[in-house]
Specification:
CATH topology of the largest domain: TIM Barrel
Radius of gyration: 25 Å
Strand content: 35-45%
CATH superfamily of the largest domain: Aldolase class I
Number of helices: 15
Structural class: alpha+beta
Largest sheet: 11 strands, antiparallel
Helix content: 10-25%
Distance between the termini: 29 Å
CATH architecture of the largest domain: Alpha-Beta Barrel
Length: 675
């Protein structure tokens, strides 16, 4: 049952928000509802700043706010207070899908209305929301007495750390998030994409990100001092960062704060700072597992383009559909079904509706529906956005007419028009067009080469998942991803939203089809493999969240394999999520509940570990039967990574399991009530 309580603190504002006015300026303290976080805003000599405390310890020291406009005109000085507003909010809301069945949205809010004392006398507001697990703030620009056109060249928002610590980050790339994470001192960061996760003290973790990114460029973070950072917006080709008109609002600048790293994962803060669902009928939005004509192309066994090794043929699609129908897999993805792949880097060769001669789209769709399987469409643009937008209406209309309710989009390559970036305002607006047009056609989106997620899935729940990470495919044609990679993703990239990492490779060493491989990238042919054990691959279905979750290997590698039973049963939508134990970059153990069953996933880095897993998340008074998939006695990351063991254990709430993980290993488990 949804409960909503929204109230303005008028007379109580004096109690809740302590203000100070003096000859030098204005200060206000904004507390979180549980009083563990305090945000301080100050206007000193006309310049705005903020500072943050967590449990009486400084997290962010005084940091600047404001903008620079075209021509060097600065909106960060000569400001005066035009008024303030304060309030509080508490509600519980149900996501259409997610890591939890219920989100609590509780915060204290304070708006500071500012105007320039002289000059253009522009006015704007800064709105702070203090949650128990962090805070967000945004800039609000109303209509102006002067011209309403806005050209921003720099956002002055600062994030000045109160001290040094450890950082997990990838470079501030304007076009890709597909980098390996670096673990360094905070002071060693040059620039970083967000979410940027930091450990400031033994029991203090923070993650800097943004929420409700709309009609605005993505924000990266650049270092301006030893532990001082500033927002760095992705530019247009002419160097302007934001082109818009008043009235407008910026995205929320967010900082999650936690005493344990796992609490970053279970936070709803990013979702809470987005608008409620705008899709009235969501019955067609269905989370699911899927397989696809995909991994074979990355291995070099098949091709995206037509020819003797063409992957997406009618016959092969039907084989995949038969496998999916037999094994509780909801969807089948077919990449390379449409013409244009022969010269896809040109981008303008795709029309997104014309199939290759050996792929009968209506017949494949009919066959899938007959078998109770959803066909997942595919739109690879090659980065040529004008061409895609020219064909989008007809492309989505075709899928809608055939009853296809999901599509994977792709933007591999440089964005056109030339000079645009994947994460700039132009592309943010394009991605928004895509998700809204898809919603009109009752289609779910899985976006690859996307802009990072910022909670948009609350507003548009057909925005299911995104790549935006160095995923499984890198193991097919490069040196691959080291074991620690998937112990960092949950605390960085995944904090923004679901991640289409595409786990589930059973042929770990990629050798079963070695004789068939004709690599489109020969550089690492002899090195390509997955750097984990098979049990680790199973655990990723619990550790890495996505409502569209791929079983990425070739179906032949799953056939008659006893470990595939875990993938068959693992849900993709959860009622409860808890992080039992974690150290970022070392290991993570997550437990999730769906219905009456609990699912456990744990992965480790390159180090062997013995994990003590308390069962205290189970319901009291009930015995459970656990089916455990784990590294076997002979499992070895380098020589025998596909070895595994299955055992069944009877447990209750007071029990603790002791489980050993080998290097790059893991375990996955299902706990079912014994009754």
């Amino acid at each position: 049952m949804k409960k909503s309580l929204v109230f303005l603190l008028l007379l109580a504002a004096v109690f809740m928000f302590s203000c100070k006015r003096s000859g030098s300026g204005f200060q206000v303290a904004i507390p979180s509802p549980d009083l563990t976080i305090h945000i301080y805003f100050a206007l000193e000599k006309g310049k705005p700043f903020y500072m943050v405390y967590h449990k009486d310890e400084i997290v962010l020291d005084w940091s600047p706010l404001g903008y620079v406009f075209a021509g060097g005109d600065t909106l960060s000085r000569d400001l005066v207070i035009a008024g303030t507003e304060s309030g509080a909010h508490r509600e519980e809301w149900k996501p259409v899908w997610g890591q939890t069945a219920l989100c609590l949205n509780e915060y204290n809010e304070y708006k500071i209305h500012l105007r320039e004392k002289s000059g253009l006398k522009r006015k704007f507001s800064i709105c702070f929301r203090a949650f128990n697990d962090g805070f967000g703030f945004r800039y609000i620009f109303p209509e102006q007495e002067s011209a309403d056109s806005v050209f921003i060249t720099s956002e002055l928002t600062g994030f000045n750390m109160a001290g040094n610590g450890t950082a997990w980050w990838i470079p501030g790339d304007f076009d890709s998030y597909e980098h390996l994470f670096r673990t360094t001192a905070i002071s060693e960061i040059d620039s970083a994409n967000t979410p940027l996760t930091l450990k400031l003290a033994e029991n203090r973790y923070i993650s800097i990100h943004e929420a409700d990114l709309s009609n605005y460029p993505g924000m990266t973070i650049k270092r301006t001092g030893e532990t001082k950072f500033s927002a760095s917006l992705v530019p247009w080709p002419d160097g302007i960062k934001v082109k818009t008109e008043a009235p407008f609002v910026s995205p929320w600048r967010t900082v999650q704060i936690a005493e344990k790293p796992g609490d970053l994962i279970t936070s709803c803060l990013i979702l809470n700072l987005n608008e409620p669902n705008r899709i009235e009928d969501t019955s067609w939005i269905k989370p699911m597992k899927y397989i696809g004509i995909w991994w074979g192309m990355h291995l070099g066994i098949h091709t995206w383009h037509e020819g003797p090794r063409h992957g997406a043929t009618t016959a092969r699609a039907k084989e995949y559909i038969d496998f999916a129908a037999k094994h509780n897999i909801g969807g089948v993805l077919a990449e390379g079904w449409n013409t244009g792949w022969d010269s896809w880097f040109n981008g303008d060769k795709f029309d997104f509706v014309t199939p290759y001669p050996d792929f009968n789209l209506p017949e494949v769709t009919r066959y899938a529906q007959e078998k109770g399987v959803s066909l997942i469409g595919h739109h690879e643009t090659g980065g040529h956005v004008p061409n895609y937008e020219k064909h989008m209406d007809s492309a989505f209309a075709l899928y809608h007419s055939l009853g296809i309710h999901a599509v994977k989009t792709g933007y591999a390559g440089k964005i056109r028009p030339e000079g645009q970036h994947h994460h700039g305002q132009f592309m943010v607006n394009h991605y928004q067009k895509v998700v809204e047009l898809a919603a009109k056609n009752r289609i779910m989106i899985d976006a690859h080469e996307p802009v990072k997620p910022t909670g948009l899935s609350r507003t548009w729940p057909n925005m299911m998942t995104r790549e935006g990470v160095r995923g499984m495919e890198w193991n097919a044609w490069s040196e691959g991803n080291p074991p620690e990679h998937t112990t960092i993703i949950p605390f960085t990239r995944m904090l923004g939203g679901p991640v289409d990492y595409t786990p589930g490779i059973f042929d770990i060493l990629c050798v079963r089809h070695a004789g068939e491989r004709k690599k489109w990238n020969e550089a690492h042919l002899d090195k390509t493999r997955v750097h984990s054990t098979l049990a680790n691959q199973l655990a990723l279905y619990v550790v890495l969240y996505s409502p569209l979750q791929m079983a990425a290997d070739l179906p032949g590698n799953y056939k008659d394999h006893p470990a595939f039973a875990f993938i068959e049963e693992a849900p993709v939508n959860w009622d409860v999520t808890q992080v039992l134990d974690a150290e970022i970059g070392d290991y993570i153990t997550i437990v999730r509940k769906s219905g009456n069953n609990w699912y456990i996933g744990s992965v480790t880095d390159e180090n062997e570990r013995t994990m003590e897993v308390p069962m205290d998340f189970l319901s009291p008074g009930i015995d459970y039967l656990i089916t455990l998939y784990e590294d076997g006695e002979n499992t070895d990351l380098e020589t025998n990574p596909a070895d595994f063991a299955i055992r069944e254990i009877r447990v209750k709430k007071s029990d603790t399991l002791t489980i050993k993980m080998t290097s790059g290993g893991g375990f996955a488990a299902i706990a079912r009530p014994a009754q």
